Amino acid sequence: MFTGIVTDIGRVLGVRRTGPEGGLDLSIATAYDTAEIVLGASIACSGVCLTVVAVEAGAFSVQTSAETLSCSTLGDWIEGTAVNLERALRVGDELGGHIVSGHVDGVARILDRRPEGESVRFVIAAPPALMPFIAPKGSVAIDGVSLTVNEVDSDRFGVNIIPHTLSHTGFGEARPGQRMNIEIDPLARYVARLIGARPGITEQFSR
Fold it and tell me: Is the pTM of this model over 0.85?
């Protein structure tokens, strides 16, 4: 479990395709103290929860399956790609963003980036199937960053990125056309499941 508060910007050091299923081995440089990273630890890499399979000074390695590649941007990564990193939440840690599972729901795309005061406004297109789960003032994780939705318009939504987030995440380098991992708020997912499982509950909420 994660919170969407990025604590390091890593860089892809190496990409190696493995096996007939088409998975990848990824080596990622990090400022984390790798002596504290144990094998089997979970680290969110641009929103995707991955298991550490090897550790060396200044870097760690993870493996991805073909399934993960099919629903995320990891297949686009090359040497030098910036990676938002977050260690798994521990008991007692501050929940600074919102609950993020690291199980991404799909791939979004930046449509527009423009200055707005001291922040930068991003307009992001999401897959149509995910748009019903995105609401104004609600939470969404984009490339592992917990963000508050400003507005929603059919197939897109807007977020404002403050200077701190720009300088401490990959959003500082993000440009229109770029693909990004998206995970909807788990609360929205379970509410939708509850409504679908109990006919008539929508009418109860509307009273």
Answer: yes
137 phi/psi in degrees, rounded to 5: 70, 5
Q: Residue 31: phi, psi to the nearest 5?
A: -90, -5
* Residues in Cβ contact with 100 at an 8 Å cutoff, skipping those fewer than 6 apart: 1, 2, 3, 4, 44, 47, 141, 144, 146, 183, 186
CA distances from 165 to 66, 71, 146, 207 (A): 31, 25, 10, 39
Q: 58-85 burial string, b = 16+ CB within 10 Å, else e? A: ebbbbbbeeebbeebbbeebeeebbbbb
Q: Are 50 and 12 in contact (CB under 8 A)?
A: no
Indicate left, alpha or beta for 177 from its phi (over 0: left) and psi (-120 to 50: alpha).
Answer: left
Nearest in space to 150 (alpha carbons), one of 187, 129, 169, 123: 123
As given in the structure block, the two tokens for residue 155 are 């197939």
Q: How far does Cα 175 stand from its chain's mean position? A: 16
C-alpha to C-alpha distance for 7 and 82, rounded to whole angstroms: 13
pLDDT digits (tens, 9 = 90+) for 147-194: 999 999 999 999 999 999 999 999 999 999 999 999 999 888 888 778
